[in-house]
Amino acid sequence: MTQPSDSAARRAIKPVICYPVDTLPAPDMDLYTRARDTLTKVHEVIAPAREAATFHVPKGHFFRITSVEGSQVGDLNLFNANDLNERFYSGKTRALHGTHITTGQRMWSSFPGLRPMATITHDTLGWYGMDEFGGSVHDVIGTRCDPYTHNLLAGGQYHHCCHSNLSRAMADHLDLTPQEAESYVHDVLNVFMCTGFTRDTGQYFMKASPVRPGDYLEFFAEIDLLGCLSACPGGDCSSEHSSDEAACYPLLVEVFKPAAGSLDGWVSPQPNRYDRSHGRG
Protein backbone atom coordinates (compact mmCIF):
# COMPACT_ATOMS: atom_id res chain seq x y z
CA MET A 1 0.00 0.00 0.00
CA THR A 2 1.37 3.40 -0.98
CA GLN A 3 0.98 6.22 1.51
CA PRO A 4 0.20 9.70 0.20
CA SER A 5 2.96 12.24 0.57
CA ASP A 6 0.90 14.25 3.07
CA SER A 7 -0.06 11.24 5.28
CA ALA A 8 1.71 12.63 8.35
CA ALA A 9 -0.07 15.96 8.03
CA ARG A 10 -3.44 14.22 7.69
CA ARG A 11 -2.82 12.16 10.83
CA ALA A 12 -1.70 15.23 12.76
CA ILE A 13 -5.03 17.02 12.41
CA LYS A 14 -6.42 17.62 15.89
CA PRO A 15 -9.68 15.88 16.81
CA VAL A 16 -12.90 17.74 17.51
CA ILE A 17 -15.33 16.61 20.22
CA CYS A 18 -18.54 15.55 18.46
CA TYR A 19 -20.91 16.59 21.23
CA PRO A 20 -19.58 19.37 23.48
CA VAL A 21 -21.54 19.05 26.72
CA ASP A 22 -21.19 22.59 28.05
CA THR A 23 -24.91 23.17 27.48
CA LEU A 24 -26.03 19.71 28.59
CA PRO A 25 -28.50 19.98 31.51
CA ALA A 26 -26.48 19.11 34.62
CA PRO A 27 -27.82 17.15 37.58
CA ASP A 28 -28.05 18.92 40.94
CA MET A 29 -25.51 16.71 42.69
CA ASP A 30 -25.64 18.77 45.89
CA LEU A 31 -29.37 18.10 46.13
CA TYR A 32 -28.89 14.38 45.50
CA THR A 33 -26.11 14.24 48.08
CA ARG A 34 -28.34 15.79 50.73
CA ALA A 35 -31.17 13.40 49.83
CA ARG A 36 -28.78 10.43 50.13
CA ASP A 37 -28.38 11.21 53.83
CA THR A 38 -32.10 10.52 54.41
CA LEU A 39 -32.54 7.21 52.58
CA THR A 40 -34.73 4.37 53.82
CA LYS A 41 -34.48 0.97 52.14
CA VAL A 42 -37.82 -0.13 50.68
CA HIS A 43 -37.01 -3.14 48.49
CA GLU A 44 -34.28 -5.52 47.41
CA VAL A 45 -33.82 -8.26 44.83
CA ILE A 46 -31.00 -10.68 44.06
CA ALA A 47 -29.77 -11.43 40.56
CA PRO A 48 -28.47 -14.99 41.01
CA ALA A 49 -25.16 -16.06 39.47
CA ARG A 50 -25.60 -16.62 35.70
CA GLU A 51 -29.18 -15.39 35.91
CA ALA A 52 -31.06 -12.07 35.75
CA ALA A 53 -33.73 -10.34 37.81
CA THR A 54 -36.11 -7.44 37.25
CA PHE A 55 -36.89 -4.61 39.66
CA HIS A 56 -38.90 -1.37 39.81
CA VAL A 57 -37.62 2.01 40.98
CA PRO A 58 -40.12 4.88 41.32
CA LYS A 59 -38.91 8.26 40.10
CA GLY A 60 -37.25 10.22 42.87
CA HIS A 61 -35.88 7.04 44.50
CA PHE A 62 -32.34 5.68 44.53
CA PHE A 63 -31.13 2.21 43.66
CA ARG A 64 -27.84 0.50 44.34
CA ILE A 65 -26.13 -2.50 42.70
CA THR A 66 -23.74 -4.20 45.11
CA SER A 67 -21.18 -7.00 44.88
CA VAL A 68 -22.07 -9.24 47.81
CA GLU A 69 -20.11 -12.50 47.65
CA GLY A 70 -17.29 -12.21 45.14
CA SER A 71 -15.92 -10.23 42.22
CA GLN A 72 -18.79 -10.12 39.73
CA VAL A 73 -19.87 -7.92 36.83
CA GLY A 74 -23.44 -7.24 35.74
CA ASP A 75 -25.28 -6.24 32.58
CA LEU A 76 -27.98 -3.63 33.19
CA ASN A 77 -31.00 -2.77 31.04
CA LEU A 78 -33.28 0.13 31.99
CA PHE A 79 -36.76 0.98 30.72
CA ASN A 80 -39.32 3.69 31.28
CA ALA A 81 -41.63 1.63 33.48
CA ASN A 82 -44.66 3.27 31.86
CA ASP A 83 -43.55 2.81 28.25
CA LEU A 84 -41.09 -0.01 27.54
CA ASN A 85 -40.35 1.44 24.11
CA GLU A 86 -38.32 4.12 25.90
CA ARG A 87 -35.17 2.37 27.03
CA PHE A 88 -31.52 2.97 27.80
CA TYR A 89 -29.52 4.25 24.82
CA SER A 90 -25.93 3.19 25.38
CA GLY A 91 -24.65 4.69 22.12
CA LYS A 92 -25.89 8.19 22.89
CA THR A 93 -24.74 7.90 26.51
CA ARG A 94 -21.29 6.99 25.17
CA ALA A 95 -21.32 9.89 22.71
CA LEU A 96 -22.20 12.36 25.49
CA HIS A 97 -20.13 11.05 28.40
CA GLY A 98 -17.45 8.76 26.98
CA THR A 99 -16.77 5.03 26.96
CA HIS A 100 -17.24 4.56 30.73
CA ILE A 101 -19.51 6.43 33.15
CA THR A 102 -19.28 7.32 36.82
CA THR A 103 -20.60 9.72 39.48
CA GLY A 104 -22.44 12.74 38.09
CA GLN A 105 -23.02 11.18 34.67
CA ARG A 106 -26.28 9.86 33.34
CA MET A 107 -27.94 7.01 31.50
CA TRP A 108 -29.91 8.53 28.60
CA SER A 109 -33.03 7.13 26.97
CA SER A 110 -33.73 6.21 23.36
CA PHE A 111 -35.37 8.40 20.72
CA PRO A 112 -37.73 10.18 20.75
CA GLY A 113 -37.48 10.64 24.53
CA LEU A 114 -33.71 11.29 24.79
CA ARG A 115 -33.78 12.36 28.44
CA PRO A 116 -31.97 11.30 31.60
CA MET A 117 -33.26 8.01 32.97
CA ALA A 118 -30.85 7.67 35.89
CA THR A 119 -27.97 9.67 37.33
CA ILE A 120 -25.01 7.95 38.99
CA THR A 121 -24.80 9.33 42.53
CA HIS A 122 -22.04 7.19 44.06
CA ASP A 123 -19.38 4.86 42.69
CA THR A 124 -17.05 3.03 45.06
CA LEU A 125 -14.82 2.19 42.07
CA GLY A 126 -14.51 5.82 41.06
CA TRP A 127 -10.88 5.70 42.19
CA TYR A 128 -9.95 3.32 39.34
CA GLY A 129 -9.88 5.90 36.57
CA MET A 130 -8.17 4.63 33.42
CA ASP A 131 -5.28 2.17 33.69
CA GLU A 132 -2.14 1.79 31.61
CA PHE A 133 -3.92 -0.48 29.14
CA GLY A 134 -6.71 2.02 28.52
CA GLY A 135 -9.12 0.03 30.69
CA SER A 136 -11.79 1.49 32.96
CA VAL A 137 -14.99 0.33 34.69
CA HIS A 138 -18.75 0.65 33.98
CA ASP A 139 -18.58 0.68 30.20
CA VAL A 140 -21.11 1.63 27.56
CA ILE A 141 -19.13 0.10 24.69
CA GLY A 142 -19.85 -3.61 25.09
CA THR A 143 -23.21 -4.81 23.86
CA ARG A 144 -23.76 -7.80 26.26
CA CYS A 145 -22.60 -11.39 25.86
CA ASP A 146 -25.08 -13.24 23.67
CA PRO A 147 -25.71 -16.78 22.43
CA TYR A 148 -25.65 -15.75 18.77
CA THR A 149 -22.06 -14.48 18.82
CA HIS A 150 -21.12 -17.43 21.03
CA ASN A 151 -22.54 -19.81 18.43
CA LEU A 152 -20.82 -17.93 15.62
CA LEU A 153 -17.38 -18.08 17.27
CA ALA A 154 -17.51 -21.31 19.24
CA GLY A 155 -20.54 -23.29 18.11
CA GLY A 156 -22.94 -24.90 20.53
CA GLN A 157 -25.97 -23.62 22.38
CA TYR A 158 -25.07 -21.65 25.51
CA HIS A 159 -28.13 -20.35 27.34
CA HIS A 160 -26.65 -18.28 30.17
CA CYS A 161 -25.21 -15.44 28.11
CA CYS A 162 -26.47 -12.11 29.47
CA HIS A 163 -28.76 -11.64 26.47
CA SER A 164 -30.53 -14.91 27.29
CA ASN A 165 -30.55 -14.17 31.02
CA LEU A 166 -32.18 -10.80 30.38
CA SER A 167 -34.62 -12.35 27.90
CA ARG A 168 -35.77 -14.97 30.42
CA ALA A 169 -36.17 -12.39 33.20
CA MET A 170 -38.16 -10.06 30.94
CA ALA A 171 -40.26 -13.00 29.73
CA ASP A 172 -41.15 -13.86 33.32
CA HIS A 173 -41.93 -10.24 34.12
CA LEU A 174 -44.08 -9.63 31.04
CA ASP A 175 -45.59 -13.12 30.78
CA LEU A 176 -44.10 -13.64 27.33
CA THR A 177 -42.00 -16.35 25.73
CA PRO A 178 -38.23 -15.71 25.76
CA GLN A 179 -38.41 -15.33 21.98
CA GLU A 180 -41.00 -12.56 22.34
CA ALA A 181 -39.24 -10.89 25.25
CA GLU A 182 -35.79 -10.69 23.66
CA SER A 183 -36.94 -7.84 21.42
CA TYR A 184 -36.96 -5.68 24.57
CA VAL A 185 -33.36 -6.54 25.50
CA HIS A 186 -30.94 -3.82 24.47
CA ASP A 187 -27.31 -2.75 24.79
CA VAL A 188 -26.31 -2.52 28.42
CA LEU A 189 -24.38 -0.65 31.02
CA ASN A 190 -21.66 -3.12 31.96
CA VAL A 191 -21.66 -2.58 35.71
CA PHE A 192 -18.24 -3.20 37.36
CA MET A 193 -16.79 -4.61 34.10
CA CYS A 194 -13.25 -3.41 33.30
CA THR A 195 -12.84 -2.89 29.56
CA GLY A 196 -11.25 -0.81 26.85
CA PHE A 197 -9.87 -0.94 23.33
CA THR A 198 -6.43 -2.29 22.47
CA ARG A 199 -4.18 0.44 21.18
CA ASP A 200 -2.72 -1.59 18.31
CA THR A 201 -5.77 -3.31 16.80
CA GLY A 202 -8.59 -1.31 18.39
CA GLN A 203 -10.27 -4.48 19.66
CA TYR A 204 -12.63 -4.52 22.62
CA PHE A 205 -10.92 -6.14 25.61
CA MET A 206 -11.85 -7.12 29.14
CA LYS A 207 -9.73 -7.76 32.19
CA ALA A 208 -10.30 -8.79 35.80
CA SER A 209 -12.73 -6.39 37.42
CA PRO A 210 -11.44 -4.48 40.45
CA VAL A 211 -14.83 -4.94 42.17
CA ARG A 212 -14.84 -6.58 45.61
CA PRO A 213 -17.67 -7.51 47.98
CA GLY A 214 -19.14 -4.31 49.39
CA ASP A 215 -18.45 -2.22 46.28
CA TYR A 216 -21.52 -0.63 44.74
CA LEU A 217 -22.78 1.63 42.00
CA GLU A 218 -25.68 3.88 43.02
CA PHE A 219 -28.22 5.69 40.86
CA PHE A 220 -30.99 8.26 41.21
CA ALA A 221 -34.12 7.40 39.21
CA GLU A 222 -35.04 10.45 37.14
CA ILE A 223 -38.18 8.71 35.81
CA ASP A 224 -40.14 5.60 36.82
CA LEU A 225 -37.85 2.71 35.97
CA LEU A 226 -38.03 -0.97 35.23
CA GLY A 227 -34.59 -2.48 35.56
CA CYS A 228 -33.26 -5.85 34.49
CA LEU A 229 -29.84 -6.98 35.74
CA SER A 230 -27.87 -10.06 34.69
CA ALA A 231 -25.05 -11.48 36.81
CA CYS A 232 -22.71 -12.22 33.89
CA PRO A 233 -21.54 -15.83 33.31
CA GLY A 234 -18.03 -14.42 32.94
CA GLY A 235 -17.82 -13.68 36.68
CA ASP A 236 -15.17 -10.99 37.00
CA CYS A 237 -14.44 -11.35 33.25
CA SER A 238 -10.76 -12.11 33.88
CA SER A 239 -10.63 -14.99 31.40
CA GLU A 240 -13.88 -16.04 29.71
CA HIS A 241 -16.91 -14.08 28.62
CA SER A 242 -19.57 -16.81 28.57
CA SER A 243 -18.74 -19.86 30.61
CA ASP A 244 -19.88 -22.39 33.18
CA GLU A 245 -16.27 -22.57 34.39
CA ALA A 246 -15.77 -19.01 35.63
CA ALA A 247 -16.46 -18.33 39.30
CA CYS A 248 -19.73 -16.40 39.41
CA TYR A 249 -21.60 -14.70 42.23
CA PRO A 250 -24.98 -12.99 42.75
CA LEU A 251 -25.54 -9.25 42.66
CA LEU A 252 -27.76 -7.34 45.08
CA VAL A 253 -30.13 -4.58 43.95
CA GLU A 254 -31.53 -2.33 46.68
CA VAL A 255 -34.10 0.45 46.28
CA PHE A 256 -34.14 3.43 48.67
CA LYS A 257 -36.69 6.15 49.33
CA PRO A 258 -35.50 9.63 50.40
CA ALA A 259 -37.27 11.51 53.16
CA ALA A 260 -40.21 13.74 52.28
CA GLY A 261 -39.03 17.21 51.35
CA SER A 262 -35.43 16.19 50.72
CA LEU A 263 -35.84 16.63 46.96
CA ASP A 264 -37.75 19.91 47.00
CA GLY A 265 -37.12 21.70 43.72
CA TRP A 266 -36.38 18.55 41.74
CA VAL A 267 -38.52 17.89 38.66
CA SER A 268 -38.55 14.67 36.66
CA PRO A 269 -37.16 15.42 33.17
CA GLN A 270 -39.65 15.65 30.35
CA PRO A 271 -39.17 13.94 26.97
CA ASN A 272 -37.00 15.69 24.42
CA ARG A 273 -38.55 18.83 22.94
CA TYR A 274 -37.73 18.16 19.31
CA ASP A 275 -41.02 18.50 17.38
CA ARG A 276 -40.49 15.26 15.41
CA SER A 277 -41.54 16.88 12.13
CA HIS A 278 -38.23 15.86 10.49
CA GLY A 279 -38.59 18.74 8.10
CA ARG A 280 -42.05 17.73 6.96
CA GLY A 281 -44.14 20.26 8.86
Describe this structure in words.
With 281 residues, the chain is an alpha+beta fold. The chain has helices at residues 7-11, 29-36, 90-97, 147-154, 162-174, 178-181; strands at 40-47, 52-57, 62-67, 74-80, 83-87, 106-108, 116-123, 136-139, 189-197, 204-207, 216-221, 225-231, 251-257. The strands form two sheets. Strands 2, 4, 5, 8, 9, 10 and 12 form a seven-stranded antiparallel sheet that branches. A six-stranded antiparallel sheet has the order 1-13-3-11-7-6. The chain is globular. The protein starts with 6 loop residues before the first helix and ends in a 24-residue tail after the last strand. The mean pLDDT is 97.
Order of helices and strands: HHEEEEEHEEEHHHEEEEE
Q: Please compute the radius of gyration using only Cα atoms.
A: 20 Å
Largest sheet: 7 strands, antiparallel
Amount of beta strand: 25-35%
- Give the CA-based shape: globular
Give the structural class: alpha+beta
Annotation field: number of helices: 6
Low-confidence sequence ranges: none
Determine the fraction of residues in helical runs and give it as a percent range: 10-25%
Report how far the terminal alpha carbons are from each other: 49 Å
Number of DSSP strands? 13
Quote the average pLDDT: 97
Topology record:
Elements: H1 7-11, H2 29-36, E1 40-47, E2 52-57, E3 62-67, E4 74-80, E5 83-87, H3 90-97, E6 106-108, E7 116-123, E8 136-139, H4 147-154, H5 162-174, H6 178-181, E9 189-197, E10 204-207, E11 216-221, E12 225-231, E13 251-257
Antiparallel strand pairs: 1-13, 2-12, 3-11, 3-13, 4-5, 4-9, 4-12, 6-7, 7-11, 8-9, 9-10
